[in-house]
Design a protein that fits this description.
alpha/beta; Jelly Rolls; Aldehyde Dehydrogenase, Chain A, domain 2; 3 domains; seven-stranded parallel sheet; five-stranded parallel sheet
Length: 582
């Protein structure tokens, strides 16, 4: 409680430094973002704090209004920060104004400053100790963004319209959208490399082809929404759509992931809003526009897919994820983004990090294994999350493997070269961001590492007991750690330890012809997919084996997710079950 003296500021010793002022209802004491000219002690009337975000078109009022004896603007004055909000008079207001110059003069008056600070302190912090700036930011975060609301209303309307489409019409759309995007693969691949500064144009063309034509083949002819199917125990099932999906798109596969998620949503009769990584927004928007052109030609709602053109920000992403009209989130991206999806309150599937250990067994086809590893990890400069990351090579075949790898374009670094790699490319304790998706040739040129052949991949030796090495973390570049294994138990133990450090739930790889060793490896590694004699880049997505073809790879609960599957359109449907008495 304030003392009786402080309850009446007009009687305090600091009044001589203040000017009496009056404001009419609706007038501003100060405006958000303005530099502070002083502060105000309210005597009569109520003032509201208005927080605005002109960039996103949203505004809100602070939950708690200001009234008599509150000091407005003291925090900004003391810290010389711009105003966090606008002070709007709810009614006629009487107050005392302390100018910046008078505040400086008052600082030599100890008695006045002591009394003023006691009063001001009550207004600087609320009961939870939050500052005015954090309160304003929190209030704004919870306010609606008009553009988001508008887009969601269009998505809901488009979803309702598409529920009436025939399966034949849906398959026709899938086919024609896939063809249209594939026809622009060269253009989109070039734009992706230019915008993101990562990857290989020709490889991206191949990836787009796989993500369009091949994905379409897996969808066309499948049962979609409304079909009744029979399962065990005479239970009948009817598939139904979810509604509106919010799809988060990674920079590593910006075009093909949009296509995969849209085609999957089309088959499952869901509308989708896609949010691209900031380094892939332009190519993402171009992809969406091409899809919309096909939808328009067929008379389908173009809002079955939308991409926000608002400035990229966490606030926009959070607004979509927590929107009442978003029924499901399909999140492909970094750990923090996936965690945000799972904590948004909206049902979600997210994926975890890759960091695949690769065991090269002594009994494997070494030449083929080397070809698979170098071809896979150099593909698109190593940015596929399920690609090889850490080689575990049996000692008996080490020399042969290194020779075969060099024949394929790999370079095994010397001790000196390894040190400069760690100092310059892994200076932050993991692969520095500027080298993600850059070629092995670029990295070697930067480090002045030369060979008499084209360098496609870098091999960096790591002692098997050096578990803290940054080289044992995920490396989205054509760089592989290489550790030598003396026996089976060492290989199983190191693979397990690598995944405990990073990559749990994602992918592990083994090159081996002994089914018993494959089973031992599978039981030891805590992942969702074990690839056998398969290149990781193509194998993890199901392009080189019997796995479902997918660009969203579940990593199970161990990877922070809700599924361990290669996600498909079936994960975007609800199922009604009709069960009769037995």
């Amino acid at each position: 409680m304030l003392s009786s003296t402080l309850s009446n500021p007009a009687n305090t010793s600091f009044k001589k430094y203040f000017q009496e002022k009056k404001f009419l209802k609706g007038e501003l004491l100060f405006k958000q973002a303005d530099a502070p000219k002083g502060c105000y002690i309210l005597l009569e009337g109520t003032v509201d704090g208005l927080v605005e975000d002109n960039e996103l078109g949203r505004k809100t009022y602070l939950a708690n209004a200001f009234s008599d004896t509150n000091v407005l603007g003291i925090q900004e004055l003391m810290n010389n920060n711009n105003r966090y909000f606008s002070a709007v008079c709810r009614e006629d207001v009487s107050c005392l104004f302390l100018s910046k110059a008078s505040f400086k003069k008052m600082q030599s008056d100890e008695n006045a400053m002591a009394q003023f600070y006691q009063l001001a302190l009550m207004s600087i912090c609320n009961e939870s100790g939050e500052s005015g700036e954090s309160i304003a930011a929190a209030e704004l975060m919870g306010s609606a963004i008009p553009e988001v609301d508008f887009m969601m209303s269009k998505a809901v309307d488009a979803h309702h319209k598409m529920e009436q489409f025939s399966e034949a019409f849906i398959d026709e759309l899938i086919n024609d959208v896939a063809i249209e995007i594939n026809n622009h693969a060269d253009e989109l691949a070039s734009q992706t490399v230019l915008e993101s500064n990562m990857g290989v144009r020709q490889h991206k063309i191949l990836k787009i082809g796989l993500g369009t034509i091949e994905v379409a083949k897996t969808l066309i002819g499948q049962d979609g929404i409304g079909a009744i199917s029979k399962r065990e125990n005479d239970v009948q099932c009817i598939n139904t759509s979810m509604g509106v999906v919010f799809g988060m798109i990674p920079i590593t596969n910006p075009v093909e992931t949009i296509l995969f998620k849209f085609l999957s949503c089309l088959k499952s009769r869901n509308a989708i809003v896609v949010s691209s990584h900031r380094k892939g927004r332009d190519v993402g928007l171009k992809t969406v526009q091409l899809i919309q052109s096909v939808l328009k030609e067929h008379g389908a709602p173009v809002d079955l897919i939308q991409a926000p053109q608002l400035p990229a920000s966490r606030a926009v992403t959070n607004a979509f994820m927590s929107h009442d009209d978003v029924n499901f989130i399909l999140a492909t991206g970094g750990p923090s983004m996936v965690k945000s999806a799972y904590t948004s309150g909206t049902p979600a599937i997210g994926v975890g990090k890759g960091n695949a250990p690769v065991w090269i067994c002594a009994n494997s086809d070494i030449k083929q294994a080397a070809k698979d590893v170098i071809g896979s990890k150099s593909f698109d400069n190593g940015i596929v999350c399920g690609s090889e990351n850490n080689l575990l090579v049996d000692k008996a075949v080490l020399n042969e493997f290194v020779e075969q790898a060099q024949d394929c374009g790999a370079v095994l670094l010397t001790d000196y070269e390894l040190q400069i790699l760690l100092d310059s490319v892994f200076s932050s304790g993991r692969l520095d961001a500027q080298w993600v998706g850059r070629s092995a040739a670029d990295i070697c040129q930067f480090l002045n590492i030369e060979r008499d052949y084209e360098i496609k991949l870098i091999l960096a030796s790591v002692e098997k007991d050096n578990l803290d090495s940054p080289l044992l973390k995920e490396k989205l570049a054509p760089v592989l750690s290489l550790s030598v294994m003396d026996n089976t138990q060492q290989a199983l133990s190191l693979a397990k330890n690598i995944l405990q450090g990073e990559g749990a739930g994602h992918t592990a790889i083994i090159h081996c012809v002994d089914d018993k060793l494959v089973e031992q490896f599978a039981r030891a590694v805590d992942v969702s997919r074990i690839l056998v004699n398969t290149p990781g880049t193509q194998g993890c997505i199901g392009a080189a084996n019997g796995l479902e073809l997918s660009w969203t790879l579940g990593c199970g609960t161990q990877g922070g997710g809700s599924t361990s599957d290669n996600v498909t359109f079936r994960h975007l449907m609800n199922v009604k079950r009709i069960a009769y008495a037995q």
